[in-house]
């Protein structure tokens, strides 16, 4: 059953926009002034006749009076209220609903301030990491271009609106995610619209994965590419040929500090468009919700790779149509995080290895199974953490296989949207005590700690030897 629509703030703003008193609005809608007063104070819901009367009288879209946006504000407020700094204030659900209903602008201001506070904490954590590298501080304070681009995507929640919408519009025209073969569709589009001839070369280990000759309009793809990777390279070529202006506008607004960072970001934005073409936003978001984010089902039904699906899930943050906020990471066997994106408060280590308690490290020995872990970060926020290992096939004898672990997770408040939470007692189950990295982790009793924290003194006792050879004071 659809919930009642309480939208007093929207009615009040509409009335103030047209400089009307409550009595004047009541006359236009043919209701009593007392009824308008009760609606604006959220004592009574909007009925269908009143919504239709508003639409006719003012020419507005009645869907703007729905409860979805308010529900989203309340969910965001609940996330922010989980911050340990608010723990003693006992912020209840009804308090948050009242704020969201009566003054959503104030709620947005509060959320914006909390995001700023969160980013300040992340900046402090990154500063701690940089200090461990030594040097005079001046050069260390300058992020390398690759890291600068990573930060850029992190702070925009890994979502680029104009590129995503442009890709979705093209994908809809081409019928992507509607039972079609994306690689064939993209190749036909390149030939018909751009005059580009697509050829598949030999599976030569030394050849590039794709090579576009702009003069002859010839695109050669490596025969070693999987069907999913072939579709991605075709989509990236379409992005390069058709979305260059939008990408350049995005780069200008980003104002990267070096030409190298700008070039890295340009490539990343073309790849972003490719991912959005293969898995168009609205269709993929709806499918993910319907399948409760079952990764195997999503891979099977879209034809995309597991990495493409996980990466795309981390980008579904379109205002007004947000998906579940995920973090996504790709980790190699040495513990290096080669990809990291997060629409959550989950933080990744910038330097050195990630937390050894995190289940991505166990994924390499799990035989391709999806590992499920409830993890708690030092700030008290709990996450449903998924991890699975993937292997890139070798191209010749003697070549070392490339193995990676993919990590995908969301806060446990979104557990109802996740098939992986079924059967878990989220309240009683013990949580793995995660950290960002040992250098900035405040936990004093972790048996897997590799280094002492930067901001704490330690003490050693030759007469007493524990699992960790020092005591954190």
TrEMBL record:
Keyword Membrane: no
Key words, A-Z: DNA-binding, Transcription, Transcription regulation
Cellular component aspect of the GO annotation: cytosol
InterPro entries xrefs: Cro/C1-type_HTH, HTH_RamB, IrrE_HExxH, Lambda_DNA-bd_dom_sf, ScfR_C, TransReg_Diox_bact_type
Segments forming a coiled coil: none
Domain HTH cro/C1-type: 11-65
Domain of life assignment: Bacteria
GO molecular function: DNA binding; DNA-binding transcription factor activity
Family annotation (SUPFAM superfamilies): lambda repressor-like DNA-binding domains (SSF47413)
Family per record: Belongs to the short-chain fatty acyl-CoA assimilation regulator (ScfR) family.
Record's protein name: Transcriptional regulator
């Amino acid at each position: 059953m659809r919930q009642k629509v309480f939208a007093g703030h929207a009615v009040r703003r509409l009335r103030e926009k047209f400089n009307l008193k409550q009595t004047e609005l009541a006359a236009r809608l043919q209701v009593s002034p007392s009824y308008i007063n009760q609606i604006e104070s959220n004592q009574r819901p909007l009925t269908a006749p009143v919504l239709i009367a508003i639409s006719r009288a003012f020419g507005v879209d009645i869907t703007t009076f729905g409860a979805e946006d308010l529900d989203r504000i309340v969910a965001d407020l609940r996330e922010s209220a989980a911050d340990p700094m608010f723990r003693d204030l006992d912020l209840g659900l009804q308090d948050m609903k009242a704020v969201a209903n009566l003054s959503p602008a104030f709620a947005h201001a509060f959320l914006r301030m909390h995001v700023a506070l969160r980013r300040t904490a992340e900046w402090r954590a990154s500063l701690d990491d940089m200090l461990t590298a030594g040097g005079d501080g001046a050069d260390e304070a300058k992020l390398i271009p690759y890291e600068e681009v990573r930060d850029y995507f992190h702070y925009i929640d890994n979502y680029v609106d104009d590129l995503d919408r442009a890709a979705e519009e093209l994908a809809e025209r081409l019928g992507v995610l509607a039972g079609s073969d994306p690689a064939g569709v993209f190749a036909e589009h390149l030939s018909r619209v751009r005059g580009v001839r697509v050829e598949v070369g030999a599976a030569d280990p030394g050849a590039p994965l794709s090579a576009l000759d702009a003069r002859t309009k010839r695109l050669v793809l490596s025969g070693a590419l999987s069907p999913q990777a072939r579709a991605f390279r075709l989509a990236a070529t379409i992005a390069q040929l058709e979305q260059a202006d939008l990408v350049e506008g995005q780069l200008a607004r980003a104002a990267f500090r070096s030409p190298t960072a700008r070039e890295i970001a340009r490539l990343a934005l073309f790849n972003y468009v490719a991912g959005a073409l293969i898995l168009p936003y609205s269709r993929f978001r709806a499918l993910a919700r319907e399948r409760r984010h079952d990764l195997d089902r999503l891979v099977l039904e879209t034809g995309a790779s597991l990495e493409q699906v996980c990466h795309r899930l981390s980008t579904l943050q379109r205002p007004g149509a947000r998906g579940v906020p995920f973090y996504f990471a790709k980790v190699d066997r040495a513990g290096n995080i080669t990809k990291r994106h997060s629409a959550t408060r989950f933080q990744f280590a910038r330097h050195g290895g990630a937390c050894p308690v995190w289940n991505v490290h166990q994924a390499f020995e799990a035989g391709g199974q999806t590992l499920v872990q409830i993890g708690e970060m030092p700030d008290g926020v709990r996450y449903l953490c998924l991890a699975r290992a993937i292997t890139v096939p070798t191209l010749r004898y003697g070549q070392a296989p490339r193995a990676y672990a993919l990590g995908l997770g969301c806060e446990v408040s979104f557990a109802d949207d996740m098939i992986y939470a079924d059967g878990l007692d989220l309240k009683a189950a013990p949580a793995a005590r995660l950290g960002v990295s040992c250098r900035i982790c405040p936990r004093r009793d972790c048996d897997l700690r590799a280094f002492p924290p930067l901001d704490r003194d330690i003490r050693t006792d030759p007469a007493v030897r524990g699992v960790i050879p020092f005591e954190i004071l």
